[in-house]
Amino acid sequence: MSGASPAVRWALLSGNFVIGCGVMVVAGTLNDLARSLQVSVALAGQLIAIGAVVMGLCAPLLASWVAGFDRRRLLTFALAWYAVGHALSALMPDYAALAPVRALCMLGAAVFTPQAAAAIGHMTAPEQRGRAITFVFLGWSLASVAGMPIAAWLGETFGWRVAFGAVALLAAAAAAWVYAAMPDGVRPAALSIAAWREAVTHPVLMAIVAVTALQSAGQFTLFSYMAPYYRQVLGASPAQISLLFAWFGLFGLIGNVLLTRHIDRFGAARSVALALALITLSLIAWPLATGFATMAIVLVPWALGCFSTNSAQQARLGLAAPVLAPALMALNTSAIYLGQAIGAASGGVLLAQSGYTWLSGVGVLWMAAAIALSAWAAARAGRPA
Fold first, then answer.
1. What is the pLDDT of residue 280?
2. Are 373 and 214 in contact (CB under 8 A)?
3. 346-362 residues labelled b (16+ CB within 10 A) or e (exposed)
């Protein structure tokens, strides 16, 4: 196909917006979740890890199963599942009941994000593919601009159940939009076992996927616990917590917009390197933020690199091996979520043992490994880092 219509691109962007809102709603409402369910912040934060493990393991497995499905119906169903899952989550009486429902809910995210990327890549000419993929990933940045701070505000003001219910309503609306906008008959070619084997045994491609996991772990070691950190360490009010999330999201959106406009000229590998460096800079400077204003300054580089990293990585893989794109998108999405799980889980352990002291330092170590591996992969691929 020569290109996807603007309606399709915006519908898929809206779907990623909802997926991003649902993934981040736990982090945004962590204070009320812990208080309402009468568990520690560290234990409540493991809901992030639980959902991320499910998404990480199931994204590539489900990619094979759904390969022959019409993407209009598949993506609509994934968002509808997400809506029902968040509605049921909001009704759960305690942590023990919420955890498995949260896990099942996240199957919708495991399907939607990689299959939306593969679908838009399939529908777009090669010379426009990088920009098209990063455009639909703007939804994640928009989720950080609007969804994360609104979830934090709803959680602090009305409780986490209201925030989860809001995600359910948004997911239902996005499902209807995707069904109305997507054409019938979009079926990226199913990959054979041999193609999957080629993808998972290719050292450079798997190194790029590993970069995603490493940087995601580095970010979520600290990101998962931002809301309680803002309250307990900075003494921020509910309004200030929401403002910090909105500030982060605003610059996250700016970073992704800049990436979308310039990635085809600047190059995906260089874009990734710059984004990783920006995130690392903020993590190094994190201990210097002792109040609301200084935290706002420290957050800017991280936000600029946060979501643009994932977008650039998806485009990097799609451009490196277009034929293997469905498998690579699924594996990269899996890496995002497995990195989140590792980061949230390890951050929870550190938090339980020594408070917030070591979270940013451990994040820097993860990012340093990501930068080194990304440079190696770029050199092996014959492109500048």
1. 98
2. yes
3. bbbebbeeeebebbbeb
CA distance 291 to 88: 37
Between CA 258 and CA 279 the distance in angstroms is 16
Helical residues (DSSP H) of the chain, grouped into ranges: 6-28, 30-37, 41-65, 71-91, 95-105, 107-122, 126-136, 138-142, 148-157, 160-181, 193-201, 203-223, 226-232, 238-266, 268-285, 292-320, 325-354, 359-380
Judge if pTM exceeds 0.70: yes
pLDDT in tens, 74-106: 999 999 999 999 999 999 999 999 999 999 999
Cβ neighbours of residue 272 under 8 Å, at least 6 residues apart?
Answer: 211, 309, 312, 313, 316, 374
Q: What is the CATH number of domain 6-380?
A: 1.20.1250.20
Give me the sign of the Cα torsion angle 42, 46, 48, 53: positive
Handedness of CA 305, 353, 101, 335 (dihedral sign): positive
| Domain regions of the chain by residue span | 6-380
- With CA atoms as reference, report the closest residue to 19 among 171, 182, 225: 171
**What is the DSSP-derived secondary structure letter of residue 77?**
H
In 3D, which of 371, 4, 363 has the Cα closest to residue 182?
4
Report whether pLDDT(385) > 70.
Answer: no
Residue range 330-352, pLDDT digits in tens: 788 788 888 988 999 999 999 99
Tokens describing residue 174: 């996005």
User: Does 384 have pLDDT greater than 60?
Assistant: no
181-218 burial, b at 16+ Cβ within 10 Å, e below that, comes to bbeeebebeebeeebbebbeebebbbbbbbbbbbbbbb
